Structures are given as C-alpha cells and as structure tokens.
Amino acid sequence: MKEQLMAVKETFVEEIKRADSSDKLEEIRVRVSGKKGALTLLLRDMGKLSKEERPAVGKLANEVREAIENTLADQKERIIEMEHERQFELEAIDITLPGKKPDIGSHHPLNIVIKDLSDIFIGLGFSVEEGPEIEWAEYNFDHLNIPKDHTSRDHQDTFYVDDDKVLRTQTSPIQIRTMMKSQTPPIRILAPGRVYRSDEIDATHSPVFHQAEGLVIDENITMSDLKGTLDLFAKEMFGSDTKTKFRPHQFYFTEPSAEMDVTCFICHGKGCRVCQNTGWIEILGCGMVHPNVLEVCGIDSAKYSGFAFGMGLDRIAMIKYGISDLRLMFENDIRFLKQFR
Ligand code: DAH
Description:
Elements: H1 2-18, H2 22-33, H3 38-44, H4 53-91, H5 109-123, E1 127-128, E2 134-136, H6 137-140, E3 160-162, E4 165-167, H7 173-181, E5 187-196, E6 208-218, H8 223-238, E7 244-251, E8 254-263, E9 280-289, H9 291-296, E10 305-312, H10 313-321, H11 328-331, H12 334-337
Helix pairs in contact: 1-2, 1-4, 5-10
Bound molecules: 3,4-dihydroxyphenylalanine (DAH).
C-alpha cells in the first residue's frame, strides 16, 4: 500500500506539473482524485488494513493527498497566468502599423458654385427658392412674354412632356411662380436649378445643365440697383479686382436688357486662352423686368419695378476650375471629383 501511495504521488505530481491548460489539469484531477480516481480508490481500501498498519499508512496517505492538492493548486495558478498572457499576445495591437485612411467625399464643383453663389446673395438679403423641373409651358414661355411663334418653343429645342408641360428650358419660370405667390413686394430671390434643352452632347453642350435665376421687385428699383448688385456679386464671386461691363442685349422678359461681362479671372484682363484674348468673360443675362411680366403675375407695374438676371452655372464652374469638358460634370468619375477637396 505504501508503495502504491508513493507511486501515485510520483506519477501524478510529475504529470500535474507538465499540464499546460486548464482542461488538461482538470482531466488529471479527475484521474487522481475524482470519484474513481487512483488516490480515491486507494483511500477507500484503507479500511482493509490492519490496526497496526493503519496509523503509518494513514499519515502517508494524508501527505500524498496534500502534496497532490497543493501541486494542483500551484499548477492551476500558473496555468491561469499563462492563459492570460497567451490571450494578451493574441489581442495585442501593433500601434506601429500604418493606419488605413478612410476615403473622404468631396463636393461636386457645381455644388461648390451654387453654395458660393447662394452665400453671396443671402448676404444681400435674398432668399433661395426652387421650382419644379416639369413646368407649365405657359410659365416657361407665355408668362415670360415670349412670343407664340418663338423658335425656342420648337420641339427641336424643348422637351415636351405633353401639350402644355415641358422640362423647363430655363430657371426664369421661377420668377413667375414667386411673383404669383407673393404679390406684395419686396421680393428678393435667387433660384438655382437644373434645366433641359434638346441639345446634342459635346464638350460644351448637354441636354441637362444648370442655371441660377435672380429677381428683385420693389418700389423705385432702377437699372443702377441692377448694376450695383451684380457688380458686387462679381467682385465677391471672382475676386475684388474684378471689373464688370454691361452690353445691351435682348430678352423678351426684360426691357431694357443687357449681358454682363467680367474681367477674366484667369488672366485678370491681360488676355488668355480662356477669354479668347479679349480680357472679358460673359457671365449672365439681365434686365429690368418687363411690365407685361409683372402684370400677368398680378403686380401693379405702375407702382413696382424690378430687375432679373440669369446665369449658366456649368460654364462658371468650368471656367473657375479649368474644366475642359462639360461631360466630366455628369460622369461621376471619382478621379475627377476627388480634385475638388
Ligand atoms: N433665361 C435666360 C436664358 O436662359 C437667362 C436670363 C436672361 C434670365 C435675362 C433673366 C434675365 O432673368 O433677366 O438664356
């Protein structure tokens, strides 16, 4: 019995010390001191010993049990520590690795132009308005004093939805909507938006493009208000050294009408490829709102007057950012868009 006890102690103490996981240790514990464990079985046989043998063997048995329990406890502690360390190693973060940069989006050049434009006119007390892209032909043409037989009404130039609805060809019908809604001036609005014309696509034409419309109506509004406002806008938009020039023009909805040129903001008036060596760039159409337009919207043209203007936003973005092909604006190529960060 003594030899058996010593043998159990030797084999199991050794085995316990070699255990390298909690599972393995538990498996050994069951084999030595579980219900049918080697030591448990030996201790159960103690009853069969003679009276004389019992004290000495009993003492040894206790020592063996203690030795095994202590070794188990020590090893358990060691394993827990080892397993923690292994876990730490597994979860370790290498802070010296280069990080992954998330791709940051950018504003579309057209939206940058619309934002800049809006900021300038909001600063002048204008509000920003919108109108529908499917518009009454009446608002797009008739109410703007455009003659019944004008070529722009032709199906070759205008997309008709049906006999009396069109895809608006200009943002000018937003003038009509605004005046009809609020017949009590003062009115000061800027209305940017998408417009449509039945054009072939090339580097400078697209069947969908963008305009912004402006309208001011109040008592005693004169051509000098128009010039002052648009000159200030040009300086804010293209640089404080920008000069403006107004050339007579003809629009049906304004009288008198003009086109406004600004000094080329690429060469500052010296002459370059962008301004075709003239030093000037044409930016917008404008004029004093025609009395017929005021009256059709229910505004008394004897009491009120006003001015309006309209500009092509794609062209402004192209010149401002040196974009050589209008199609780039609509292709959503990330390599193009990324440049406007
Ligand atoms: N709607 C005109 C166009 O598409 C631009 C324009 C010119 C708008 C003069 C105006 C204006 O409001 O007064 O060519």
